[in-house]
Design brief:
16% strand
Length: 153
């Protein structure tokens, strides 16, 4: 095992891990940040999405050895008080059913709004493509993103 310094949610952390250990498991097991979920383990579902330098990244496929170069933001770090415009919009639109995928959905939406503060329906659909919601709350997700974009402008 090697020692890595990783910046997560504005704080520097020293972790011991094998170079190929996915960031997801470092976050959950080493740092005890369990908001980021394991879904498929193959970067296909989006449940494990975090931000690295503001860009949506599937943490299940990003080795810790590649995650030391940027600032990682997890759902826990999106807002200290849980009052990020997306989090408030998620509540207002009653988006979650089971809730399992929602942290990844919110983080992917945050990446979209970082790059495009006023996305069209087509841009939302394109950006969110690949984030799977087994409960099928896609229409509420889109509505919440539109509300957050409006509230953030």
């Amino acid at each position: 095992m090697a020692s890595y310094t990783i910046n997560v949610n504005g704080k520097s952390h020293q972790v011991e891990a094998d170079a190929d250990t996915p960031l997801l498991w470092v976050l959950r097991d080493n740092l005890e940040m369990v908001g980021t979920k394991f879904g498929c383990g193959m970067a296909q579902c989006g449940a494990c999405t975090v931000l690295v330098d503001g860009n949506a990244v599937r943490s299940c496929s990003l080795p810790i050895s590649s995650a030391t170069k940027g600032e990682v933001t997890t759902i826990e770090g999106l807002s200290e008080k849980g009052d990020h415009p997306l989090q408030k919009a998620w509540i207002a639109h009653d988006v979650p059913q089971c809730g399992y995928c929602q942290a990844g959905q919110i983080m992917n939406a945050a990446s979209l709004l970082n790059k495009n503060p006023n996305p069209s329906d087509e841009e939302i659909a394109s950006a969110m493509n690949g984030n799977i919601c087994r409960c099928g709350t896609y229409l509420r997700i889109k509505a919440a993103i539109k509300t957050a974009a409006k509230d953030n402008s």
